[in-house]
């Protein structure tokens, strides 16, 4: 079936939008030409304790990199997410919490959230936590996770959230790296009815660290109600700690450049990096992007289906939506439990207007045909969002037609843990959409494409994506390692921020992310992005998901090694393999024809956030599976073993 390659802004979207295309053009120009005036105005979306007079004070010069925004202002992030809303929104729901099991649910109003945050903030103070101390949060998607982040922000403690799916070792190394005094966890977590033993994992992590553990206390939320080992000298029950605390706690005045949080990147490309974000610029940027990118309006029901363990959860479940006084759905479970209909059921149940999820979830549902949406209404939806990986046009179209009923713009948002918020994205009422393209830069963002020597390419171009100047949500440093920060992001192409991603720019100035630069293939001298071949593969009826990597090839330099997961009900065969090679040859070009096609019915190796780990697949393809590197962020190691056993290159 053929689909349009351009979707003009719909009448429905332009009728409701904050930002039309004219407004986008005019605001974008101002944001680039007069950044101080532009961001001075945007800063007013927050309540400040001390008003700012300085706005932008930044440099990308190697050896002298600095990123300061609003640096003589002071504010408190939790005040901006809670206190200032109470006059008008005390009884408004902040979170509709939907548990792992259907029927298990809870609502939390702004007043209740405020009370809980103050109690926990006071409780943390009673344990000796002060401004600047680091606190590791290892919690499932439960309201207490939001409470914990905001309670840290309230007293000026720096939170470091570790995704609840991580192992004791991954947790331990993150605790040590940022020297956390306190861990907040729960007895267990539930996802898709499977329990993760968070408290046991915490005990194991701290046990392994022994006397090297910086942790003085562990606060334990009783969530599932299972028995745990309790160390009375160290462990504190959450409910007991907060019971005796007052529900009022003065927010700590924070300089705009005081740290708000540390968050480790998802580790797709190697050892995770401890990204540090500060308070003022981050919050301005999170609130602004949440409003404009999703075209959020007061009264909308908003659902970001990410986990609070990722930056998407920080910026678009907690800080952005709460700064804007939004009502959000918070979901504990997974899209496929108890059935593939769960996402559609939650949308209908809460009449969700804005849904933000990841290509990995969309592809997982799409593999089941229409059944994930069969019988659902879905007419409440107005805007759909995607984040985390390039979204293949095939998945885009499925999302657009089956979930959005061909009426909702999809915002394909490109950004990183490092960028704090969305940098390249359509705006629902302003941008004509092209499936697979993240389209245009957000306000204040100056992307460019450079060749491998760092020369900027004009017009239609393909190469390495860099950002030329700072924006308020940008990371400030890697925690405890400013040198690695400069080396990682500013040394490859001096004077600009290097994203690590490849991109194309088309004749309309739209950006298309082509995958990690490290993953780009060079076949007989032709550069091929992995994203393009993968999109072609998943457009084939038999294929649910695909990953493409290069491997050493005697004649071509690099050969194309393809891993494919069949759709539900499809049996791999030699004939199908042939058909798939022919399909890619037809659809793209003979150069792109896969040399080796390995079926992966058990799935592909992914990070815990659902991204395909091509670096591991590259090692298997090169027959170097004894050198897999850091696999601590891998979701399911058994998948790797199966792929290694069935590998096609044994030379
Ligand atoms: P690490 O840096 O540790 O390897 P990571 O890059 O996966 O991990 P994140 O910060 O969570 O960690 O992910 C950011 C990356 O995700 C981007 O650099 C890009 O490669 C990819 N990405 C995110 N959104 C999109 C998108 N809309 N289109 C294409 N790629 C995207
Ligand atoms: Mg990265």
UniProtKB/TrEMBL annotation:
Entry cofactors: Mg(2+)
Listed GO biological process terms: acetyl-CoA biosynthetic process from acetate
Annotated ranges, domain AMP-binding enzyme C-terminal: 532-611
Organism of this sequence: Arsukibacterium ikkense
UniProt cross-references to NCBIfam families, sorted A to Z: Ac_CoA_lig_AcsA, PRK00174.1
InterPro entries: Ac_CoA_lig (IPR011904), ACAS_N (IPR032387), AMP-bd_C (IPR025110), AMP-bd_C_sf (IPR045851), AMP-binding_CS (IPR020845), AMP-dep_synth/lig_dom (IPR000873), ANL_N_sf (IPR042099)
Function, as annotated: Catalyzes the conversion of acetate into acetyl-CoA (AcCoA), an essential intermediate at the junction of anabolic and catabolic pathways. AcsA undergoes a two-step reaction. In the first half reaction, AcsA combines acetate with ATP to form acetyl-adenylate (AcAMP) intermediate. In the second half reaction, it can then transfer the acetyl group from AcAMP to the sulfhydryl group of CoA, forming the product AcCoA.
Gene that specifies this protein: acsA
HAMAP family membership: Ac_CoA_synth (MF_01123)
Name recorded for this polypeptide: Acetyl-coenzyme A synthetase
């Amino acid at each position: 079936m053929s689909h349009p390659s351009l979707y003009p802004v719909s009448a429905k979207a332009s009728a409701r939008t904050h930002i039309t295309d004219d407004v986008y053009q005019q605001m974008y120009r101002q944001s680039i030409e007069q950044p101080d005036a532009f961001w001075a105005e945007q800063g007013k979306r927050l309540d400040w304790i001390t008003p700012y007079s300085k706005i932008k004070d930044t440099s990308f010069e190697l050896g002298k990199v600095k990123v300061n925004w609003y640096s003589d202002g002071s504010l408190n992030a939790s005040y901006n997410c809670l206190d200032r809303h109470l006059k008008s929104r005390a009884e408004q729901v902040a979170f509709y919490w939907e548990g792992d099991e259907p029927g298990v649910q809870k609502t939390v109003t702004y007043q209740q959230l405020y009370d809980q945050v103050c109690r926990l903030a006071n409780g943390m103070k009673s344990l000796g936590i002060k401004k600047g101390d680091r606190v590791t949060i290892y919690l499932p998607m439960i309201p207490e996770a939001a409470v914990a982040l905001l309670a840290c922000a309230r007293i000026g403690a720096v939170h470091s959230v570790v995704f609840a799916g991580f192992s004791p070792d991954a947790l331990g190394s993150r605790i040590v790296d940022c020297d956390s005094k306190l861990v907040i966890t729960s007895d267990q977590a539930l996802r898709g009815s499977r329990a993760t033993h968070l408290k046991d994992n915490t005990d194991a992590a701290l046990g392994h660290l022994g006397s090297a553990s910086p942790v003085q206390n562990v606060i334990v939320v009783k969530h599932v109600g299972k028995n745990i080992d309790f160390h009375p000298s160290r462990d504190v029950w959450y409910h007991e700690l907060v019971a005796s605390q007052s529900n009022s706690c003065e927010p700590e005045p924070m300089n705009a450049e005081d740290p708000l949080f540390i968050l480790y990147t998802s580790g797709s490309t190697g050892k995770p990096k401890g990204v540090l974000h500060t308070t003022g610029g981050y919050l301005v940027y999170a609130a602004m992007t949440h409003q404009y990118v999703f075209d959020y309006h007061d009264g909308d029901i908003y659902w970001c289906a990410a986990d609070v363990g990722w930056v998407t959860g920080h910026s678009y479940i907690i800080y952005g939506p709460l700064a804007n006084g939004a009502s959000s759905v918070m979901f504990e479970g997974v899209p496929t439990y108890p059935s593939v209909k769960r996402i559609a059921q939650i949308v209908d149940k809460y009449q969700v207007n804005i849904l933000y999820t990841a290509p990995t979830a969309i592809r997982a549902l799409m593999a089941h045909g229409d059944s994930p949406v069969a019988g659902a209404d879905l007419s409440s939806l107005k805007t759909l969002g995607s984040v985390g990986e390039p979204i293949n046009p095939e998945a885009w179209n499925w999302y657009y037609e089956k979930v959005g009923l061909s009426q909702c713009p999809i915002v394909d948002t490109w950004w990183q843990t490092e960028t704090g918020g969305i940098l390249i994205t359509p705006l629902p009422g302003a941008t004509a959409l092209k499936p697979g393209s993240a389209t245009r830069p957000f306000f204040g963002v100056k992307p460019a494409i450079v060749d491998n020597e760092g020369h900027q390419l004009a017009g239609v171009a393909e190469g390495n994506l860099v950002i030329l100047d700072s924006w308020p949500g940008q990371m400030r440093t890697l925690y405890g390692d400013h040198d690695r920060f400069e080396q990682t992001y500013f040394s490859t192409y001096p004077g600009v921020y290097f994203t690590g991603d490849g991109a194309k720019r088309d004749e309309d100035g739209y950006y298309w992310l082509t995958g990690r630069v490290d993953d780009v293939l060079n076949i007989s001298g032709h550069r091929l992005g992995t994203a393009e071949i993968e999109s072609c593969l998943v457009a084939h009826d038999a294929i649910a998901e695909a990953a493409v990597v290069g491997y050493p090839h005697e004649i071509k330099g690099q050969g194309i090694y393809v891993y494919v997961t069949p759709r539900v009900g499809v049996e791999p065969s030699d004939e199908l393999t042939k058909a798939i090679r022919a399909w890619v040859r037809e659809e793209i070009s003979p150069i792109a024809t896969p040399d080796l096609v390995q079926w992966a019915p058990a799935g592909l190796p992914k990070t815990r956030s659902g991204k395909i780990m091509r670096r591991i697949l590259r090692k298997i393809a090169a027959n170097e599976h004894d050198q897999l590197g850091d696999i601590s962020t891998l979701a399911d190691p058994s998948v790797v073993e199966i792929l290694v056993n069935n590998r096609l290159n044994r030379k």
